[in-house]
Amino acid sequence: MVLYLVQHAAARSKEEDPARDLTEKGREDIERVAHHLKRLKVQVGQILHSGKTRARSTATVLVKHLQPAAGISEAPGLAPLDVPGIWADRLAPMAEDLLLVGHLPHLGKLAALLMSGDQEKKVVNFQMGAAVRLRRMGVGQWAVDWMLTPELIL
Fold first, then answer.
1. Interval 21-45: pLDDT, tens
2. Residue 10, class by beta-carbon neighbours within 10 Å (0-12 exposed, 13-18 middle, 19+ buried)?
3. Is the pLDDT of residue 13 over 80?
4. If we measure between CA atoms, which residue out of 94, 133, 92, 124 comes closest to residue 106?
5. Which of the following CATH numbers is that of domain 2-152: 1.10.510.10, 3.10.20.90, 3.30.1490.190, 3.40.50.1240?
6. How far, CA to CA in Å, does 141 sit from each of 46, 92, 117, 126?
7. Average pLDDT, the chain
8. Taken in order 70, 75, 79, 85, is the CA torsion positive or negative?
9. What pLDDT score does 154 carry?
């Protein structure tokens, strides 16, 4: 199984936009990343996102390019302060490739838990609009294949 973890793209401040939708730069960044993921022939069965506007908007751009069979859906357990073990448990029986759009610190803790068993270890330096590809190597064993940031795409 391959798991893509995407931190939402840059969002407006709460003062500027209480819903915190994406900035123009954030939209441009995630468009570039999504287009590049399509060029890499990334295929996932579904894209899941938190209920926050910035994650939903990021996922909407990704689904347009990647066109997963099951589309996009909001999923519980992806909010910034949610417990990462919830998703570690959900992923254990899954076989289909999946893309999750979420937030820090949750995504960082989930990656750490999957790769080291310790959610407090810093194993990935997430960036807004970046995609991290993890691969399950065996039962309970995950490794990073690569990370794609908006700045890497010209």
1. 999 999 999 999 999 999 999 999 9
2. buried
3. yes
4. 124
5. 3.40.50.1240
6. 22, 10, 9, 20
7. 97
8. negative
9. 75
